[in-house]
Amino acid sequence: MHSLAQEIRSFSKAKLRQQRTRVTTLTGKRVIETWRGACLRVEEEEEEAVPGGGYVRDLSADLQVGVVKPWLLLGSQDAAHDLETMKKHKVT
Length: 92
Fold this sequence. Notes:
DUS19 phosphatase, JUN kinase phosphatase activity
């Protein structure tokens, strides 16, 4: 079994796959983001945007809280701003 230090030493950027991320803005405009070296390249997608953009605005509160450790909770900003949720998990 390799140690973490050995895996880090053997890491090669050349083995990483190039990633492309499609972003749909609130207006429905679509762009493609790719990294080239240390620079972010943004280009408009060639396909026409679908009316409405396919973006669904979610205004409902996300009050889920995950207990990682008894003293470490993981949740959204909605949960952090909800006093009842914080009291339930004894956050002070």
